[in-house]
Amino acid sequence: MENIISTFPTALEIIGLLAFSVSGVIAALQKHLDLMGIIVLAITTACGGGILRDVLLQNGIPVFFTNYSYITTVVAAIVGTLVINKLYSRHKTLRKYNVSRILDVADAIGLATFGTSAALMVLDQGGNMLTCVFICTITGCGGGILRDVLVQRMPIIFSGTIYAACCIAGSVAMYLLYDYCSLPREFITTICFVLILGLRFLGIFKGVGLPKIQYHAE
Length: 218
Description:
Layout: H1 2-6, H2 11-30, H3 35-56, H4 68-90, H5 92-95, H6 102-124, H7 129-150, H8 164-180, H9 185-206
Helix pairs in contact: 2-3, 2-4, 2-6, 2-7, 3-4, 3-7, 6-7, 6-8, 6-9, 7-8, 8-9
């Protein structure tokens, strides 16, 4: 049974793969990329953070290259997003709905799922708080940063609204609860996920961000 379970992504990673794939496809469509550009951007966004995580944690060959479930999930997300995009363009009744926030929402879900999954992996390996925070943040933010760099736009992480800080807060909360409280693993995982997602939604819908430091030229 353990071997069977280990051959498939966790539920969190499946959600993250779908969400980040969708955000990659939408970013590609917004930049009018061709089919190859859409595929590359979706795969890079969905798997970039996970590959960085596996390399930094020295987990051997990144799971994306050894597990066909990951690429299958990404392909399904690409096809589904393209079909929905086509339907949206053809039906006037659908176009009355504002979908301008879909990219941000999909990115937020990917951020929360991959960040939570990475923090959990670090704790399972006995990592300290610094490792937990770093791996959670680089995994959650990595795919989105690569996506934005490839389409030559300012990465969302630097957009002014709260982003990386969401992962920092979520991973610190998970580490403290995991280390000092006798709470069920599922409950701690849920708290981390909800905290990261909730904070990111505050940034998206309420414009919450960290203070900016004004540069005073000499």
